[in-house]
Amino acid sequence: MRHRHADKLGKILLRHFPRPILRAVGHDPGSQPLQWEDVTVNLPELTADRVLVVGAPDDPQRFAICFELEFRPKRKNLDTWCYKRAALARQLGCRVFLVVIYLRKGTYTTFPNVLVEQEGALRNSFEFTAIRLWEWVPLIRGGPLRGLAPVLFVCEDNPDEATLEEVQQLIYDGDFTGQEQDDLLALTATIASFYLRRPIVMKNLSFEERWLRRSPFLREFGAERREEGREEGREEGREEGREEGTMELRRIVKRMAEKQFGPLPAEVVARIEAADLELCRVVLDRMLEGAPPTELGLSAGG
């Protein structure tokens, strides 16, 4: 499964089944009210769409959990998470705990749960809860975390039809309401469809297409996929616009260089035609400043 799908599916799993996930991280919410919040913190790119508030608004012990789903460990994300947690705590007016869920082990050996910065005697340290999803597998199979059975598809290296049968049986054996069971089976069907042919999935789960479409999970997942498609389309449009702008700038650089210096050597023409946007801007600036050809950065050595 491509990692963006694992992230989307993980986010929906969090939203629909927060109580078993809270128990998995060591907090039993009991009958406490739970409320998901969509919060944008200061910078627009730091949207926190997986913030779970535990407790009523007037509860002095009310707190929130910010979940981050990580397909592979990335050091650069640690600073972002620290900033986001602090901004959320200020915005929500309560304690905010960071929980990072690493989705796949892969070939990695280190999955950080602390950020440490040190320079001589100066030191910063921030520790958070890290969940390595594959470590939950025994608890899922053993019973306590059966509500997370569909994530076995994400944890397995090569999930197959036997994985589907196992997940299905775990769900049937679990203590779920009818709606919870339906949603878990729908979630299972969707994840399994990334690995197995759809007719196999439908046959094993005895689903009818019209029943599957009625699942709240499938409707939300479909909305996520449509938005993802729109965003990809917008990004393609932006990329196309950047490419057109770069091509036009290359033509301008070539014309100006020919006017100032006469016919250009073939290697310089080739360098201009391959130049990216930043190089084109640098060359233009240098020409406008009256720099000689050798200082434009278009020769093989420059």
Give structural notes.
Strand 2 (47-54) and strand 3 (63-70) form a beta hairpin. A 5-stranded mixed beta sheet has the order 1-2-3-4-7, with helices on both faces. Strands 5-6 form a two-stranded antiparallel sheet. The protein is built from 12 helices and 7 strands. It has helices at 3-16, 18-24, 76-92, 137-142, 152-155, 161-173, 178-192, 198-205, 209-213, 216-261, 266-274, 277-288; strands at residues 34-40, 47-54, 63-70, 95-102, 114-119, 122-127, 129-132. It is elongated, with a radius of gyration of 26 Å. 52% of the residues lie in helices and 16% in strands. It has 2 domains: 3-214, no CATH class; 225-295, no CATH class. With 302 residues, it is of the alpha/beta class.
Q: Would you summarize the structure shown here?
A:
This protein is an alpha/beta fold. The protein is 52% helix and 16% strand.
Largest sheet: 5 strands, mixed
Give the terminus-to-terminus CA distance: 44 Å
According to DSSP, the number of beta strands is: 7
Gyration radius, rounded: 26 Å
Tell me the series of helices and strands, N- to C-terminal. Answer: HHEEEHEEEEHHHHHHHHH
Number of helices: 12
What count of structural domains? 2
Basic shape: elongated
